[in-house]
Amino acid sequence: MLAPLALAGAARAETSPYGVAVSQQFVRDSNVLRAIDAAAQSDTISASGLRLMLDQPLGRHRLHASASYDMNRYSNLDYLNNNSYQADVGLDWTAAGLWRGEVGASASNQLFLYDLSTVTPVSEKTEERTDRVFARARVGVVTAFTFDAGFENYRRTYSTERFQSRDLNWRRADMGVRWQPQPDFNVRGAVSYSEGEYPQLSTGDEFTRNELRTDVFWRPSGASTVDASASVSRERHSLQTSRSATYWSGSVKWAWQPTGKLGVSTRVVRDSDAGASDQGSVLADAKLRTTFEVTGNWLATSKVNVQVQARRVQRQIDSTFLVLTTAQQASDATHTLSVAASYQPMRSVELGCRLQREQRSVGNANALLTYAFNANVASCYGQLWWR
């Protein structure tokens, strides 16, 4: 929960291939469990962390890895005290001829807090573990066409029985071709096949997904870029046959940098992946999720950076993923506004703070599926690198 902010400066390119850092972050949260306003509990959280990084060329290849470990301690809700970690490793390879690609793996373990679709308070600590491995290969760097293929395996598990119905095993293979007639424009078409199962969901739900996807990149000027995608997929479920249907999804992102110090990006995403539970209880699954996001970055000085972000996530949810008799439906919208500033007095030191406001409103009330809440979060961090 706390690591992403503290890692804000870890990805900067450095001359040394190795890096070690220590970090400290303090967070004040007015509604830790994202409960209804009448049941909100505030707390102060401390996160003490260790960071490791590696970025090492190996001839024509490159090995990169990162790891983080945090001790998260709550002042009042101490039953939520936990240790979280994130580890990633990858190899970018280049073979004889026009072949190149990547292989990698990642693992994480973190506190799972927000049962955002039920008014029942969280009374036990649940940890979420994810594991992922992937491989991708491409051929063709001289002509306008590039062919690629990839494979990914993903697993997600929960430590307590209450959430184990969300355990997920998922695999995907895809292949595509990219056409790039000029440096500022390219189009990629791809087909993919996914299969997976929710092994702890009732008698177990298995699903398959066939997808046709198109991605477009366009740089209309030196100051702006446009990324767009659209896909149509056919999904089939063995248990929840009501979710076996054809789905459309897509996204558009526009990034504009009028000056060297100012950047603005806007993003719209429509996600209709019925196989993904979206921050819901065991009774809720997002049928459709639409995200609107605007982000502004301002490099105030060579050492100070300011970011402002506004986001709206609108969901249409129902209970068909578990409730096999009569389906219940609801809709909600979550608004998030955040302001963050970071200060880097020297290459090895970074300090920063963030203020965030979250508010969710409910379109048609259904206490079993969703509810309204408010939360204010303030945090500050510092980290020190040795490279």
Measured between the Cα atoms of the first and last residue, the distance is 26 Å
Q: What can be said about the biggest beta sheet?
A: 18 strands, antiparallel, barrel
- Domain count: the total is 1
Radius of gyration computed on alpha carbons: 22 Å
Please name the CATH topology.
Answer: Porin
Percent helix? under 10%
Strand content: over 45%
- Overall mean confidence score, pLDDT: 87
CATH architecture assignment name: Beta Barrel
Ranges where pLDDT stays below 50 over 5 or more residues in a row are: 3-14, 278-283
CATH class: Mainly Beta
* Global shape: globular
DSSP summary, beta strand count: 18
SSE class: mainly beta
Count of helical segments?
Answer: 1
Model description:
By secondary structure, the protein is mainly beta. The protein has a single domain (3-16, 94-386), classed as Porin (Beta Barrel), CATH 2.40.160. It has one helix and 18 strands. It has one helix spanning 3-6; strands at residues 18-29, 43-58, 61-74, 82-94, 99-111, 127-139, 145-158, 168-182, 185-198, 205-221, 224-237, 245-256, 262-271, 285-299, 304-318, 329-346, 349-362, 373-386. It has an 18-stranded antiparallel β-barrel. The protein is globular and about 60 Å long. Mean pLDDT is 87; it is low at 3-14 and 278-283.
What is the topological layout?
Blueprint: H1 3-6, E1 18-29, E2 43-58, E3 61-74, E4 82-94, E5 99-111, E6 127-139, E7 145-158, E8 168-182, E9 185-198, E10 205-221, E11 224-237, E12 245-256, E13 262-271, E14 285-299, E15 304-318, E16 329-346, E17 349-362, E18 373-386
Antiparallel strand pairs: 1-2, 1-18, 2-3, 3-4, 4-5, 5-6, 6-7, 7-8, 8-9, 9-10, 10-11, 11-12, 12-13, 13-14, 14-15, 15-16, 16-17, 17-18
